[in-house]
């Protein structure tokens, strides 16, 4: 039997460790917790050992989005040095690029206008995401992702510099007490100036680790408000405001109401996406425009202008 203490207990002969989660890590995602325990191990390997059931929380298999509670016992398998998939230091140009994209920073938060094409974090074939690049830029800082954006989505990405800021804002997100607005270009012309989609979403993790989401009555409650900003010949530019924050929520809700997002190769229309390439669209037309919340009696609102590549597409679209 493995002896369990308030710290770390090794499983003699197997290299397995049982780690008790300290109070200040209450609410932390399993992948971020493991990153702190397995120094130097890339996120791609961390995700692999979680997906293959090698990581357990209180004896049960952990999932990639598992959140820990204080005093949980985490089983961490041995990770050989040979398994560490050395990725090397990130390219200097990429580090400088994210440095130039910083919108705001203080003692609690750092806010990035994340460029499209850079993942929020490394893993799943991506060596370095925004968090790794910022840590390379600020090696003496403690930085944690508060939330995530898809790789092809540009715009406001918030990182925390203090554990209290991280847990405080993540609690607001879980309670749907933040305002998150996006700009999206949808297929076709919306008949109504505003429309709300209230449809539960269910997430599945495919064998290769890919996430797929669908509208399903057994899913989690999900609500998105759409407001038309501008109409074009083949499309509608909308502002999407989230009441909930589910994975791929705007993308799936857009498709569900018959107006998928331009450039969406997972939930979109292939023929429409091909037609939009004529106007220079090379990726998902989704931009995180604004993130607002109140924490500690202070209201914070962060905004990012529409990315240049998406603005250029709008300039080429025909009038309605």
From TrEMBL:
PROSITE patterns in alphabetical order: PSI_RLU (PS01129), S4 (PS50889)
Gene3D superfamilies assigned: Pseudouridine synthase (3.30.2350.10), RNA-binding S4 domain (3.10.290.10)
Domain RNA-binding S4: residue ranges: 28-87
Molecular-function annotations in GO: 23S rRNA pseudouridine(955/2504/2580) synthase activity; RNA binding
Keyword RNA-binding: yes
GO biological process terms, semicolon-separated: enzyme-directed rRNA pseudouridine synthesis
EC number: 5.4.99.-
Catalytic function, reaction form: uridine(955/2504/2580) in 23S rRNA = pseudouridine(955/2504/2580) in 23S rRNA; a uridine in RNA = a pseudouridine in RNA
Enzyme active site: 150
Highest taxon above the source species: Bacteria
Keyword vocabulary terms for this entry: Isomerase, RNA-binding, rRNA processing
NCBIfam families per record: PRK11025.1, rluA_subfam
Family: Belongs to the pseudouridine synthase RluA family.
Role of this protein: Responsible for synthesis of pseudouridine from uracil at positions 955, 2504 and 2580 in 23S ribosomal RNA.
The protein's name in its UniProt record: Pseudouridine synthase
